């Protein structure tokens, strides 16, 4: 029986499963999903888990079940492209005929001394749990530094403020204004929320070193009791170890069919794939839609189109605690309660569609 192996149970491969199951793949094929956990984790909500405003079971859904779907739990040690085999840390070897790499990303520390050793993370559900335990255990009046004011940093800082009103929170933004690549109205709304809720946004920051209970910002040293790093991502180590052609951010170069240029049986989806847009759950799902179309055409022996449709994203949604939010959709800015309700609705629909 032929084997389609999916590496990682993130947003991209969940969409692949949603489109292929129950009967949109060949009868002589088995699908094998390899992931470190026995469930799909909604990474976009890890900030709430780390802040303590969402329970663990609220940020995950079960993988689908099917007689020809096999779930393998384990850590991937090596992706053997030449051997067409996946090597797991526990010694398992899983061969594939076709492979979709959707392993996601991990924190990128940009060579900052001490950043990896002395900061917490929200990149995996396991690391988010540890971050929650650390933040929960802080004494009243403690200072938390959030390094990186992208969407993850903004949502974590705002959710933590609602969870722990007794903490001092500092959000370090490398840019002169928060969300500087988006309309000023959006930036001003987010900054005003932080000002009104006593979150200190440190603009034009440059974290040069992290020590236990100390952050170095330019020439200044800032005492902190805990630091959460949200200042950059890179593909996970098994993907980096492949030494494939990459873009400037380390993401793997792919062709128009989301395949490796020299291997039409290997696809890359999500945060590991080099695309013109920034990595996101929405982008991974749109990629997955096209990968499924390519797979089904190949299985039917149909000729692939010379080009694939351009991926167009709808925008993004962000939360500021449980009552306020912000959105940038179709070049329009939406702020306040409506934006937060929109995000809650999207999350509810995602859970409903994925069981």
From TrEMBL:
<keyword id="KW-0560">Oxidoreductase</keyword>
<feature type="domain" description="FAD/NAD(P)-binding">
    <location>
        <begin position="3"/>
        <end position="285"/>
    </location>
</feature>
<dbReference type="InterPro" id="IPR023753">
    <property type="entry name" value="FAD/NAD-binding_dom"/>
</dbReference>
<dbReference type="InterPro" id="IPR036188">
    <property type="entry name" value="FAD/NAD-bd_sf"/>
</dbReference>
<keyword id="KW-0274">FAD</keyword>
<dbReference type="InterPro" id="IPR051169">
    <property type="entry name" value="NADH-Q_oxidoreductase"/>
</dbReference>
<protein>
    <submittedName>
        <fullName>NAD(P)/FAD-dependent oxidoreductase</fullName>
        <ecNumber>1.6.5.-</ecNumber>
    </submittedName>
</protein>
<dbReference type="Pfam" id="PF07992">
    <property type="entry name" value="Pyr_redox_2"/>
</dbReference>
<comment type="similarity">
    <text>Belongs to the NADH dehydrogenase family.</text>
</comment>
<keyword id="KW-0285">Flavoprotein</keyword>
<dbReference type="GO" id="GO:0016491">
    <property type="term" value="F:oxidoreductase activity"/>
</dbReference>
């Amino acid at each position: 029986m032929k084997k389609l192996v999916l590496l990682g149970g993130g947003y991209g491969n969940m969409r692949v499963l949603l489109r292929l199951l129950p009967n949109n793949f060949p009868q002589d094929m088995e699908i094998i999903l390899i992931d470190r956990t026995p469930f799909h984790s909604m990474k976009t909500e890890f900030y709430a888990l780390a802040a303590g405003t969402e329970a663990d079971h609220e940020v995950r859904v079960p993988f689908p079940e099917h007689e020809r779907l096999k779930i393998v739990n384990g850590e991937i040690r090596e992706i053997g492209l030449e051997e067409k085999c996946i090597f797991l840390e526990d010694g398992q070897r899983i061969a594939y005929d076709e492979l979709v790499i959707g392993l996601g990303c991990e924190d990128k520390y940009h060579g900052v001394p001490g950043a990896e050793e002395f900061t917490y993370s929200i990149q995996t559900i396991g690391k988010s749990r540890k971050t929650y335990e650390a933040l929960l255990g802080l004494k009243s009046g403690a200072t938390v530094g959030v390094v990186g004011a992208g969407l993850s940093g903004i949502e974590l800082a705002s959710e933590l403020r609602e969870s722990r009103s007794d903490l001092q929170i500092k959000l370090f933004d490398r840019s002169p204004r928060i969300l500087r690549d988006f309309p000023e109205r959006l930036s001003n709304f987010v900054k005003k929320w932080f000002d009104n809720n006593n979150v200190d946004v440190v603009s034009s920051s440059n974290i040069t070193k992290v020590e236990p209970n100390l952050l170095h910002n330019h020439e200044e040293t800032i005492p902190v009791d805990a630091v959460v790093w949200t200042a950059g991502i890179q593909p996970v180590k098994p993907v980096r170890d492949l030494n494939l052609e990459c873009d400037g951010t380390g993401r793997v170069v792919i062709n128009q069919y989301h395949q490796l240029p020299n291997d039409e049986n290997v696809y890359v989806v999500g945060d590991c794939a080099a695309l013109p847009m920034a990595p996101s759950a929405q982008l991974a799902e749109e990629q997955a839609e096209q990968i499924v179309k390519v797979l089904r055409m190949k299985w039917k022996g149909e000729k692939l189109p010379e080009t694939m449709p351009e991926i167009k994203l709808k925008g993004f949604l962000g939360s500021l605690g449980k009552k306020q939010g912000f959105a940038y959709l179709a070049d329009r800015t939406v702020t306040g309660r409506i934006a937060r309700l929109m995000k809650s609705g999207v999350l509810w629909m995602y859970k409903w569609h994925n069981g």
